[in-house]
Design brief:
286 residues; alpha/beta; Rossmann fold; Conserved Hypothetical Protein Ylqf, Chain: A, domain 2; 2 domains; 6-stranded mixed sheet; 11 helices; GTP-bd_ortho_bundle_sf
């Protein structure tokens, strides 16, 4: 995979601002995409977070393969993270975030009271890569449109304080990627799920990776969705041709319209038309 510029200049500024403000926080709320808990975990953010109490929120849980998610929960809890499975779209477990934060900060709250100090609110920073659902989550928490929301990466452009309730405040931050992906599969996983813009990586390479991944881990889904009986016996192009045929993505002369097929497959993946999927299987065996 060729080196691609996917780290816009404003992300350097965002990282610097996060580093400056994190000292003021009681804790951190770190969102990852439940479909790719490793690939959507920004290592630069982890360096900044350090030993700050952190609640790791596995968002979009409705889209993810729960068996794989459970392995990741076990893995991250062994690393010292607190975890919670959520869905910022329908509100699943969102109402538990504040109560979990008080549990996590219980000792700190008790120490403050013992010293005669008032601890009347939780102040936290919410972090995550672009398009992981931070703005949608905040809107669900406050039950109104508090931030801009979109289905494209990079909607939130600056930090802003959001008052969830009289005792809970969150500092929303722009989604931040990192300058270079050491493992090219991370870039592909982010591209498949839409965490980075569709023109960041060559679409044909992204789709070929997706097909091979589905062949390895979810062959039955390809059969169920597109009627492909002998998935393991076909190469990537043959599978693309089959999808093009059954979905009518054919141009004059009977040739496959591959650009349309790319869009069809990625849309089906992102809209759960192939069922709940996870794209970080290999790392989950760590």
């Amino acid at each position: 995979m060729k080196q691609v510029q996917w780290f816009p200049g404003h992300m350097f500024k965002s990282l610097r601002e996060i580093k400056e403000k994190i000292k003021l926080m009681d804790m951190v709320f770190l969102l990852v995409d439940a479909r790719l808990p490793f690939s959507s975990m920004n290592p630069e953010i982890l360096k900044i977070v350090g030993d700050k109490p952190t609640l790791l929120l596995f968002n979009k849980i409705d889209l993810a393969d729960r068996k794989t998610v459970d392995k990741w929960v076990e893995f991250y809890e062994a690393q010292g993270f607190y975890t919670l499975l959520i869905n910022s779209n329908d509100g699943f477990n969102v109402n538990k975030i504040y109560s979990r934060s008080k549990e996590i900060l219980e000792e700190k709250i008790l120490r403050s009271k013992n010293k005669g100090m008032k601890f009347d609110r939780v102040r936290g920073m919410i972090l995550g890569i672009p398009n992981v659902g931070k703005s949608t989550l905040i809107n669900k928490l406050v039950s109104k449109k508090a931030t801009n929301v979109g289905n494209k990466p990079g909607v939130t452009k600056s930090q802003q304080w959001i008052k969830i309730n009289p005792h809970f405040e969150l500092l929303d931050t722009p989604g931040v990627l990192w300058p270079k992906f050491e493992d090219e599969t991370v870039g592909f996983a982010l591209a498949i799920t839409g965490a980075i813009k569709d023109d960041t990586l060559p679409m044909n390479q992204v789709v070929i990776y997706a097909i091979n991944y589905l062949k390895e881990y979810y062959p039955i889904r390809l059969k169920e969705r597109y009627g492909i009986e002998n998935v393991q016996d076909l190469d990537e192009v043959e599978i693309l041709d089959h999808i093009g045929k059954v979905r009518g993505a054919i141009v004059k002369g009977g040739e496959t319209d591959y650009d349309r097929v790319y869009t069809i497959l990625l849309t089906d993946i992102r809209n759960r038309n192939l069922g709940a999927l996870s794209f970080d299987h290999r790392q989950s065996s760590i």
